[in-house]
Every structure is written in C-alpha cells, then in structure tokens.
Amino acid sequence: MHPALPRSLDSAADQAALLVRLGTGPLLIGLDFDGTLAPIVDRPEGAGIDDAMRSRLTALAALVPTAVVSGRDLDDLGRRVAAPGAILVGSHGIEIAYPGDGVERAPGLERSDAALGALIRDLRAATADLSGVLVEPKRHSVAVHWRLAGPAEEAAAERIVEEASGSFPAFRIGRGKKVAEFRPAIERDKGSAVGLLRDHAAAGGGVPSVLYIGDDVTDEDAFRALDPDRDTGILVATPPRHSAAGWCLADTAAVADFLDRLIEVRCGLSP
Ligand SMILES: O=P(O)(O)OC[C@H]1O[C@H](O[C@H]2O[C@H](CO)[C@@H](O)[C@H](O)[C@H]2O)[C@H](O)[C@@H](O)[C@@H]1O
C-alpha cells in the first residue's frame, strides 16, 4: 500500500470513535520514545519524559502490554523511561526486555559488534572538526547527529557517513530526524519487533490488536507491520506527512492527552 496522508485525530468525534474501538479486547501498545513520548531537543542526552508521562506509562502497562520502542539502546532507554511494568525495545528492535524476564537480543550481531569500536573511532576522528556534529555511540550501533550543525557541516557529515558505510559492510545506514545511524545489517527493525511483541502477548491470552504511535522514519517499519483491519497506527507530526499510519496527532502533548483518554476508557471511566 502506498503511504497516504494520515487523518488528523484533532476532532473529538474521531478520537471518541477510535477510543471506543481501543477500549475493549486484548490490546498491545507500542510507543516510540524520541518525538512521541519525549519532545525533540537539540542534543540526544537532553531528551526525557516528565513524571506525568512516567505515571501514564506505568498505568497503561498495568492494564495492557505496553512497550516503549526506540532507536536508543536498552540501557539508555531504561534510564530515561523508568516506568515499572513497561516492556522496553531498544536499538530499533534488536534488544527486547520484558519486565522480570531478561533481555532477548536479535541473532547475528557478532560481525557488527566486532567492528563497532573501529567505526566509532573513525567517525569521531572524521567529525572532530565539524562544529555541531555529534557522534552518539550505542551498544550495537552509532549515530551521527547534525541538528546543531550548519549546512556546510551537515553536508560534510553526510559525506563522512557515505564514505564510512563503504568500509563497514557489517552495518546499514538508517535515517532519522537530523541523524544517520549505522545499524547492524541484520533483519530486525521496529516492524519485526512489533511482530515479536504481539506473539509474546498472544502466548499469555488472545491475540491482541496493536496500537502503535511514532513520529520518525523508523516508525514507518512498525506502521507497515500493522494489519489495517484490526490495528491502529498513529503518526506524530505537524503538519502531517505521508505515512503508513492511518491517523495523526500533532505533538507529544497531544499524545499525552490521547493516552490519558485511553487509560480512562480501559478503566471503564468514560465511554
Ligand atoms: O526511536 P526513537 O525513540 O525515536 O529514537 C530515535 C533516535 O532518537 C534520538 O535522536 C533524536 O532525538 C534527539 C533528542 O530529541 C534529537 O536531538 C535528534 O536530532 C533526533 O534524531 C537518539 O539520539 C537516537 O539514538 C535514536 O536512534
């Protein structure tokens, strides 16, 4: 299916109709972190959620399986989310931590893990003189950010990423908001992770429908994995852009309001 413009959930009537559908039956919730739960900020280390969002996630996780699905690695994500009961999915689906049940890591990481240190060293050396370009090392990958860079530095960072990608075939390049990421060249993304989360939830009861909310290019993998007849994808964007998600919310504040209403309907507090 070709991506189309998602429909805005600004209208109270649309939101109410959707919430009625999400209010009963087995449900699995997947929520992206940066740009969906946490507002986008200039530097990766500055992103976070407030206590209200943490309580919201904890409340949702007590009601239905609720996963935070991020490009950040699991340790970083865990520190920032800190919501008891939430499932954590790190490194774009490569690492999955079910509460109280250890970490499941995708197979096939040996080659990229072995090359990661050299890649990080090369990227740091190549970008050292580029003002506003940041290298973010992660457990299985590395990101090159240019949100704080001018156009010339951004173009230079893009060239460095292209050159390094030729020397490190164990990685593939993923794009995001003002960032390029070297991700292990294996078959795992947020879409396949949603499939694994659904199977895990189904093992404990009925096969759930999925609600997935995300804002970035990598969330499109998750939206594409949804079944349009029973699942719900919500893009977070202003203005809306073409997406495999069917619905759209404006920003992280609108996501917070929507999740509050979802908690109310799941608790039977509103229709
Ligand atoms: O899958 P996500 O949870 O959305 O993570 C995607 C990447 O998010 C982070 O970078 C983005 O957010 C930063 C903080 O707001 C922002 O400065 C940057 O421009 C964005 O690209 C994170 O740093 C990456 O590791 C994640 O992969």
UniProtKB/TrEMBL annotation:
GO terms for biological process: trehalose biosynthetic process. It comes from Thalassobaculum fulvum. Keywords: Hydrolase, Magnesium, Metal-binding. It catalyses: alpha,alpha-trehalose 6-phosphate + H2O = alpha,alpha-trehalose + phosphate. Its cofactor is Mg(2+). Transmembrane segments: none annotated. Pathway: Glycan biosynthesis; trehalose biosynthesis. One of its GO terms (molecular function) is trehalose-phosphatase activity. Gene3D superfamilies: HAD superfamily/HAD-like, Trehalose-6-phosphate phosphatase related protein, domain 2. The keyword Magnesium applies. Removes the phosphate from trehalose 6-phosphate to produce free trehalose. Pfam families: Trehalose_PPase. Belongs to the trehalose phosphatase family. InterPro entries: HAD-like_sf (IPR036412), HAD-SF_hydro_IIB (IPR006379), HAD_sf (IPR023214), OTSB-like (IPR044651), Trehalose_PPase (IPR003337). Its EC number is 3.1.3.12. This is Trehalose 6-phosphate phosphatase.
